[in-house]
Specification:
Layout: H1 16-19, E1 27-31, H2 35-41, H3 46-67, E2 71-78, H4 86-109, E3 112-117, H5 125-138, E4 144-152, H6 154-170, H7 181-185, E5 198-201, E6 220-223, H8 233-244
Parallel strand pairs: 1-2, 1-5, 2-4, 3-4, 5-6
Helix pairs in contact: 2-3, 3-4, 4-5
Length: about 250
């Protein structure tokens, strides 16, 4: 039996009202995987799958807001993804630019705060500036924090945090014995966020893929075979429903 098969507690149709009867996670992170395979199955170019995946992201963000989830982190493009074919990467960068441009008004209307996490220096200037403009425009919104992980890699994030800590020690801003988990967490891209309660990965893969390695130390994990463009409201509600029946002990009995 595959691991994820036992995570689906029932085949009944779940509703938002039913899910909201129990506590929902404060922070959900998601690895949006399967766009390329979705396109290949239909004889379409990979970029068509990425465009369809944007629709799934929009739906999931809306559902997070409806459920009262306060933080949502979406893994949209990793450091390793720069190794993909040039045409695909350039198409993705243009898609990011177009999506932020076209959705910003709706994002503001729904009181969503945009935060870009990742290696900003490697992102094309046009795209980076559009995200940073969105960050400024939405910085006071507080219904939902939407973290977009773009050009992101967790190992690199941790290394950069270590470098910051070393500089602070050298500048006598902190003593080495005073560095603890709380202090280190504040050096990461997600410094203003609680750690994810739930991490979801689509497409049937069982890897974390260099995503939030520090932050997900005690996150609940949920895997589904569903390809990201096919990730419906019902699929997301199933993941939340599974989370609600977990016993989170954090090392305790």
């Amino acid at each position: 039996m595959k691991i994820f098969s036992r995570l689906l507690s029932s085949k009944k149709i779940l509703t938002i009202e039913e899910i909201k009867r129990k506590p929902v996670p404060v922070h959900v992170a998601i690895i949006m995987d399967g766009n390329g395979r979705w396109a290949a199955k239909r004889g379409l170019p990979r970029l068509a799958g990425h465009k369809e995946g944007v629709k799934s992201l929009k739906n999931t963000v809306r559902l997070c807001s409806d459920l009262g989830i306060k933080y949502f982190t979406a893994y949209s493009f990793s450091n390793e993804n720069w190794r993909r074919p040039v045409d695909e990467v350039s198409g993705l960068m243009e898609l990011f630019f177009e999506t932020v441009s076209s959705e910003l008004e709706e994002i503001v209307k729904n009181d969503v705060k945009i935060v870009l996490i990742g290696n900003r220096k490697s992102i094309p200037l046009k795209v980076r500036k559009r995200f940073e403009e969105a960050e400024i425009i939405t910085e006071k919104n507080d219904n939902l924090v939407l973290n977009i992980a773009l050009s992101y890699g967790s190992r690199q994030e941790i290394i950069e945090a270590v470098k910051k800590a070393c500089i602070n020690i050298r500048n006598n801003e902190i003593e080495i014995d005073n560095i603890d988990e709380k202090y280190f967490s504040e050096l990461l891209f997600t410094k203003n966020n609680p750690d994810p309660d739930l991490l979801i990965r689509t497409s049937g893969e069982f890897r974390i893929s260099n995503f939030l390695l520090w932050q997900i130390a005690y996150s609940e994990l949920y895997f589904t075979e569903t390809l990201w463009p096919d990730f419906t409201d019902e699929e997301f509600l199933k993941a939340i429903h599974s989370y609600q029946y977990r016993n989170r002990r954090f090392g305790k009995i």
